[in-house]
Write a structure and sequence with these properties.
The chain has 402 residues and is an alpha/beta fold. The protein folds into two domains: 235 residues, 3-Layer(aba) Sandwich (Peroxisomal Thiolase, Chain A, domain 1), CATH 3.40.47.10; 150 residues, Peroxisomal Thiolase, Chain A, domain 1. 35% of the residues lie in helices and 19% in strands. The protein contains 13 helices and 15 strands. The strands form three sheets. Strands 1, 2, 5, 6, 7, 8, 9, 10, 11, 14 and 15 form an eleven-stranded mixed β-sheet that branches. A two-stranded antiparallel sheet has the order 3-4. The longest helix has 17 residues. The two termini are 22 Å apart.
Length: 402
């Protein structure tokens, strides 16, 4: 069977650094931070008060009043990012059974459940609006986007937590390779919620004010939100319609630690990267850049850095590895999708975004984390790492289009 080449032809971004991939990318290269005091929820009583919130989003710019009322905030982000990605790709005919969506999330539209809970606890009223119940199941996210855009092809939700965006891109890649779809819109989305903020604080995983991946004095992650959606299609189709091509998705590798619900295990992390390299049929020395999971928590950064050293050997000493969570926070299901967009733009532009807030090297994280300032460097092949609760790991390989 002929090997199919799959390329990225459109990018859509909703992030704490702004809307649209150009705004997002320029801010990343400038080392800007989208982390600020939280406004979406009342953080009184919490030990931390900072997050990567989306502040410039206006749902009415992307959907009707009816849709805005029916769709939760995470789904609204997804729809907006999908519209941007399709416009960017020059795709206008959407009502097609060969066009589908594959979406990753951690919490889905959990705000609906929070509102139901508030109704019960604050008013003692046990009757709730049916529209709230309808918003909560994660399947309604991709279904809502399909309803708005007219997609009648494959419609898949993948809830593998903080690696979900990578998983969604990998599954969309498979559907295209197997010719079960002609075009896929894929990525991830999550919106800020009280339960996510509370949960990470209860795990003592949240930094007081800033995220410092790989820094010796790192104190934890910062909760974020957003959506990243990418248009994927087979190379021959993209070339035939003269679509813009950002780069190629070559392969992916998956693994599960099967070890601990929240603590990463080096064997699983290594396996994801090794499986990706094997599937792509490339050597470690051919990789020019890794966009790290890089949460800023002590255990995650230490494990990821050690795994990179063991997989890449001597090459790890000169291999750039940066984390944009230092700028946008941890956007959960949107994280690896937004970070995949940053990775493919690094491949396209030969420009690597930095890890900001880096001050003190950590001997246990002995890697080149591109500290504080972006770097111009040839990037022909890049990896995007993503690790999640439950030990779900996913690594995607991107290559320069030629």
């Amino acid at each position: 069977m002929k090997v199919q080449r799959v390329v990225i032809t459109g990018l859509g971004v909703v992030s704490s650094l702004g809307l649209g991939w150009r705004t997002f990318w320029n801010a990343l290269l400038a080392g800007c931070s989208g982390i600020r005091e939280i406004r979406y929820i009342d953080t009184t009583g919490f030990p931390t008060h900072y997050g990567g919130e989306v502040e410039s989003f206006n749902a009415s710019d992307f959907m009707s009043a009816k849709a805005e009322k029916r769709l939760g905030r995470a789904t609204q982000f997804t729809l907006a990012a999908s519209r941007m990605a399709l416009d960017d790709a020059g795709v206008h005919q959407l009502s097609d059974s060969r066009i589908g969506i594959c979406l990753g999330t951690t919490m889905a539209d959990i705000q609906a459940l929070e509102e139901i809970n508030s109704t019960w606890t604050d008013t003692r009223e046990h009757r709730v609006r049916s529209s709230l119940v309808a918003k909560y199941p994660s399947c309604t996210m991709s279904a809502g986007v399909a309803w708005q855009l007219g997609f009648t092809g494959p419609n898949v939700m993948i809830p593998t937590a903080c690696a979900a965006g990578n998983y969604a891109l990998a599954y969309a890649y498979d559907l295209l390779c197997l010719r079960k779809a002609d075009l896929m819109v894929a990525g991830g989305a999550d919106a800020f919620s009280r339960i996510a903020f509370m949960g990470f604080n209860r795990l003592f995983a949240v930094a007081p004010e800033r995220c410092q991946p790989f820094d010796r004095n790192r104190k934890g992650m910062i909760v974020g939100e957003g959506a990243g959606m990418l248009v994927l299609e087979r190379l021959e189709a993209a070339e035939a319609r003269r679509a813009p091509i950002y780069g190629e998705i070559v392969a992916y590798g998956l693994s599960c630690d099967a070890n601990h619900m929240t603590i990463p295990h080096i064997a699983g992390v290594k396996a994801a990267m090794q499986n990706a390299l094997r599937a792509a049929q490339i050597s470690p020395e051919e990789v020019n850049y890794i966009n790290a999971h890089g949460t800023g928590t002590p255990a995650n950064d230490r494990t990821e850095a050690q795994a990179i050293r063991e997989v890449f050997g001597k090459h790890a000493s000169t291999l750039p590895v940066s984390s944009i969570k230092s700028m946008i926070g941890h956007a959960m299901g949107a994280a690896s999708a937004l970070e995949s967009i940053a990775t493919i733009l690094a491949v396209k532009s030969d420009h690597i975004p930095p890890t900001i807030n880096f001050e003190t090297p950590d001997p246990e994280c002995d890697i080149d984390c591109v500290p504080n300032t972006s770097r111009r460097q040839r990037v022909s092949i890049a990896l995007k790492n993503a690790f999640a609760f439950g030990g779900n790991n996913a690594c995607v390989v991107y290559r320069k289009y030629s």
